[in-house]
Amino acid sequence: MEAPPASAEEKHRIERVARFVARDGDGDMAEALLLRLLKITRNGRRWGFLAPDHPLYPYYLQQKVSEQCRILRPRPAAAAAAADR
């Protein structure tokens, strides 16, 4: 199943949420809370990508994993600065 094209606004929203969840100390809890809020508010049009059965969920998951990898893998400049200390 191919995801429908996401607007620039949708992509930006998904990327921001993925970044927040990835950087949060307890990302699983943050994601669970966001899913709970989605169910309470029933605002699937805006936040539906958080649900695993949503067509844009794979994009969200890709962004979250990408951000987690970025956090775990320091940038070359940051690694060099840390080595100088």
Q: Helical content, roughly?
A: over 70%
| Beta-strand content bin | under 5%
Radius of gyration: 15 Å
- Tally of alpha and pi helices: 5
Pattern of helices and strands:
HHHHH
Shape category: globular
Let me know the average pLDDT: 82
For the termini, the CA-CA separation is 50 Å
| Spans of at least 5 consecutive residues with low confidence | none
The total of beta strands comes to 0
Decide which structural class fits the backbone. mainly alpha
Largest sheet: none
Write a structural description.
It is a single chain. With 85 residues, the protein is mainly α. The protein is 71% helix and 0% strand. The protein is built from five helices and no strands. The protein is globular and about 45 Å long. The mean pLDDT is 82.
Quick synopsis:
The protein is mainly alpha-helical and 85 residues long.
Topology:
Layout: H1 8-23, H2 27-41, H3 44-47, H4 57-72, H5 76-84
Note the main attributes of this structure.
single chain, 85 residues, mainly alpha, 71% helix, 0% strand
